[in-house]
Amino acid sequence: MTYGGTTMRLAKYLAHAGVASRRASEALVFGGRVSVGGEVVRDPARDVDGSEGVEVDGRPARAWQGDRAVYAVNKPAGVVSTAADTHGRRTVVSLVPSGRRLYPIGRLDAGTTGLILLTDDGPLAHRLTHPSFEVPRVYRAKVRRPPVRSAALQALRDGVELDDGVTAPARVKRLAPDLLEITIREGRKRQVRRMCDAVGHPVAALERVAFGPLGLKGLEPGEHRRLTAAEIERLRSAGRSRRSPARAAGRRR
Predict the structure, then answer these.
(1) Most exposed among 65, 67, 68, 234, judged by the fewest C-beta atoms under 10 Å?
(2) Domain 136-211 adopts which CATH fold?
(3) Tens digit of pLDDT for each residue in 135-186?
């Protein structure tokens, strides 16, 4: 179980492997029950990529994975993209009564609707969300102050300046004077909303209609379905195998 050459903290690695929650994984490490490369490690912040041989109680971390599942959910407005909510709001995990310990792959803000994936497969979640793989997400944004003119469309396509840097080029189609289809390969917080704000067209309603090769496929709001093995393999192949040095340098502008 490797992570495409990227590293993560040991406790996070164990949580993604399905060994335990992040906090419980930290306790396992502190307790001397985790080894990396045959040596006991007591620092949960130790960076690993899975190639070193991570074991818990002498058992390879990958052996804890077992049979993993991925669910597609059509998230309604007002539902939060977390496994639990301290304010008692309905969560996407509550929409899938699978009996598994699922968590969302990425997030949609409470007001955004559409496709979100839930899984207990940590490596897959990492691949789909890590920016180096550039997995595309497709959104439909109903915007204010129509029509959206050519200059605004071109700015979105080229990249706009946000408070956390310039966005990568996006694919943008104008479907109606106030409706855009925007494909991005980044996962910044509220990115599409902030991009539209930056070109003078605040979002009135936002829906994610595709994640990688998957679409909503007729799911009504609040409905879910378990993905087939073939669909999961398509997800594993989504995006780039590794970002090229030229593209990486461009993203660090």
Answers:
(1) 67
(2) Alpha-Beta Plaits (3.30.70)
(3) 999 999 999 999 999 999 999 999 999 999 999 999 999 999 999 999 999 9
Q: For 70-131+218-236, give the CATH class.
A: alpha beta
**8-64 architecture in CATH?**
Roll (3.10)
Same fold, 8-64 and 136-211: no
- Catalytic one among 47, 109, 121, 158? 109
Q: Is the distance from CB of 73 to CB of 92 less than 8 angstroms? A: yes
> Sorting pLDDT into bands at 50, 70 and 90, what band is 242?
low
CB distance 169 to 114 below 8 Å: no
Catalytic residue at 121? Answer: no
Question: C-alpha dihedral over 19, 22, 24, 30, to 10 degrees?
Answer: 100
| Contact yes or no for 251/86 (Cβ under 8 A) | no
Domain map (residue ranges) of the chain: 8-64, 70-131+218-236, 136-211
